[in-house]
Design goal:
Layout: H1 15-39
Length: 55
């Protein structure tokens, strides 16, 4: 199943700013998840996969 991403643009924000904010949010989530996996005991239920994002 293919799903798109939808977000609301804040009043006064340009489309470029909204895209930049979304990109920053995704990066922050990925960094937080990476930090959490490093806290786990080595190999304890951690599955690493490549995530490809397209524009």
């Amino acid at each position: 199943m293919r799903r798109g991403v939808a977000w609301r643009q804040h009043p006064g924000a340009t489309l470029e700013e909204a895209r930049a904010n979304l990109e920053e949010a995704v990066r922050m989530v990925l960094e937080a998840n990476r930090a959490l996996t490093q806290e786990e005991p080595h190999g304890a239920g951690v599955i690493r996969e490549t995530l490809r994002l397209r524009a």
